[in-house]
Amino acid sequence: MIIQHKEKIASPDTIKEAFKGLGYICSDDIAMSVYLACHLQKPILVEGPPGVGKTELAKKIAEYLSATLIRMQCYEGLDEAKALYEWKYGKQLLYTQLLKDQLGDVMNGAKGLDESVSRLHQFGDIFYSDEFLEPRPLLQALRQKDGAVLLIDEIDKADQEFEAFLLELLSDYQVSIPEIGTIKAKSKPIVILTSNNTRELGDALKRRCLHLYIPFPEPKLEQEIISVKVPELNTELQKELVAFVSELRTMALKKVPAVSETIDWAKALLLLNVHELDQQWIKSTLNLLLKFQEDIEVIEPEIRNIMNKSKRL
Amino acid sequence: MQKVLGDFIHALRQAGLPVSPAETLDALHASQLVGLKNPLLLKSALGMTLAKTQEDFIKLDQVFDHFFSLNTGSDNTAPNPDPVSNQDNIESPKPEQQDPEKNQSQERVPTPPDTPSSQLALQLINNEQTAIETAIAAAAYQAGATTMQMFTQKGVVSYRIMKALGEESLNSELSALAKDNKNSELIHNIRNKQTKLREQVKEYVEQQYLLYSKNIGKQLVDDNLKKVKLSNVDFSYYQQMSKLVTKAAKQLATQHGRRKKTSKRGTLDVRKTIAANAAFDGFLFHTKWKSTRIERPKVMVICDVSGSVSKMSRFLLMFLYSLQDVLPKVRSFVFASNLAEVTKNFDEQDIEEALSIIMKKWAFMPTDYGRALMDFKDLALDDIDNKTTVIMLGDARNNYSDSHAKIWKEVYQKSKRVLWLNPEGHYNWDSGDSIMSEYSPYCSRVEPCGSINDLTRIVGSLLKHS
């Protein structure tokens, strides 16, 4: 059982408080999803715009439960040889060479083909066995004695075939290897899947998961995040900065700034020793928030307006 | 709890959320963990187990508020009877109608009683809201409030509920009480409460209808709209039609979202083969072949946007553009007499907006297929290769001018496939100025195509054979 201490997951509020201690400020929904995932032993499918802390959530869960985090990054063309297991071909070849040398001894005195074959059968078949198995992330997660947190990152980037392949793992925490049989989890891992919505995921996958959508945080929550991540920055500046960013998010941009970008910006302002947010500073650090030249060109002439608007908040 | 959750999920399904039995079980486990005390926690727990997209969550949010306000909200209305007492007693003529019963009760009870004795009356006098609510819920279930099909049934259901609650005996009792003048205040009080009860029942039935049945009627309309000929669809249904088209397109997109692979015959994948045969000491028992993905079809649509065909064109274009996930390379052309490419319009504008501009500009011009084909030749013939599917949507009514079928032949020879969709039925082809038979030899398929169902079928086959 991955949960060593029951009291750690006694209620969503406990989890929320504990995560705060670990430097991860989360909303009630997030805490609830972690609570349910631990109790119902179901995977969580986390969706949301990039940079709102989807991957971070998995890391924090692992840290909180003091479990190993096993991460698998998905990409197009990912197959089971890279995700689940592969045979150690080199060793297998060596083994056949060894077997050849031994063959004479084993067959010594056997009469006729039938007897040779039956003797060969008596000879242990270890060609396809655990010794020659190279475990990949999924198998590693199943084999962890104390359970693990398995992060399957950006599942939407993987092919649909791979998604189908995951179904058995997600619902029963087991995988089938044709040569060996079914391998069951020693202790059920907590599985977190993240998706950026580049494509619609299948219903079968969604059905097996708890669905968690992490939106951009409310200004209040975001300010709390900044104060935990960049505590040296003065509170007034934190407030201004969060208001400015949340105002930016309402504008029609190619890519709106995420929480991670707000944090970067806050760190930069701290480094530059800025005490008050003014037009000049924003202009020179805008490229930390906006990642497209078009966006920067749209925002630059509007900075004063946005500042005024955000002050009114 | 199971019953409550079961009803809630029934309501969710009616609202269009696809909730599977497995998810129902998850939701039950989750709500047992969380408990029913804190509605916000419960909502977020149910949201995680039942709603699997953002849209679904919004729907769940609405249904949740609606569903649970129904069970708790009526407490708030109970303590203040003032708004009701201000209202005139609309039901005043009722006692006269009940005359025969009054006589009967008179016969049964010779001396008028001082206090009413029926259960409902007692409940009303003592203001037992909880008991009344339970009774309403039970009666409503019996009266079929959860299985209403049409809004017209609401009245009947309310009537049945009131009857089950014992309104008749209450009325007769009241008439009996009315014999004595000193009871007038009591009667007035009960009458008020009765009106209020009636409203409560009406409200309850209304909510039940919204929860469970609102979408059934809509479903009926939707099903019919899918079948009806697009040229006959009234303008007022356009909004709904476009929704249906997008929905059908989305369905197709998920069905065909997977890209198929074909194996290239004769090209060995050396790495995989060696790996697969390591067990046999390098003897190649199993061969592994290289494979490639099948490319999506390149589609060119040519739409006649004149007259009656324009409606059809509208929906076909909408359909194809809703399929952008699976059909990224659609080039579209519209014509009446002249032909022009409108691919850019769709890229830059919202589909509805682009369509209305196109229709305004092109509709109601005389058709000339020959002229349009000449334009098409100049614009796009060179881009057609053996991966291109060309779809023509038109009735082939050419106003007796030259058909230029030769160009169409060239298109047919260069492309992978040519589909001709004709909004008219077989029997109309080649009648009047229709010259379908001149083009049809140079088409892989000619199909009559009138409704959304036809469209779905044809575009589906386009994707399947790509």
Give the key terms.
heterodimer; A: 313 residues; alpha/beta; Rossmann fold; 3 domains; 5-stranded parallel beta sheet; 9 strands; 13% strand; B: 466 residues; 4 domains; 6-stranded mixed beta sheet; two-stranded antiparallel sheet; elongated
Number of helices of chain B: 22
Most extensive chain contact? A-B, 32 and 31 residues
Overall spatial form of chain B: elongated
Please, what is the CATH homologous superfamily of the largest domain in chain A?
Answer: P-loop containing nucleotide triphosphate hydrolases
Strand order of the largest sheet of chain B: 5-4-3-6-7-8
Highest CATH level, the class of the largest domain in chain B: Alpha Beta
Please state the average pLDDT score of chain A. 86
Q: Between the first and last Cα atoms of chain A, what is the distance in angstroms? A: 48 Å
CATH superfamily of the largest domain in chain B: von Willebrand factor, type A domain
CATH architecture of the largest domain in chain B: 3-Layer(aba) Sandwich
Radius of gyration of chain B: 34 Å
> Which range does the strand content of chain A fall in?
5-15%
Number of domains of chain A: 3
Strand content of chain B: 5-15%
* General shape of chain A: elongated
Mean pLDDT of chain B: 77
Terminal CA distance of chain B reads 50 Å
Please give the domain count of chain B: 4
Order of helices and strands of chain B: HHHHHHHHHHHHHHEHEEHEEHHHEHEHEH
CATH class category name of the largest domain in chain A: Alpha Beta
DSSP strand count of chain B: 8
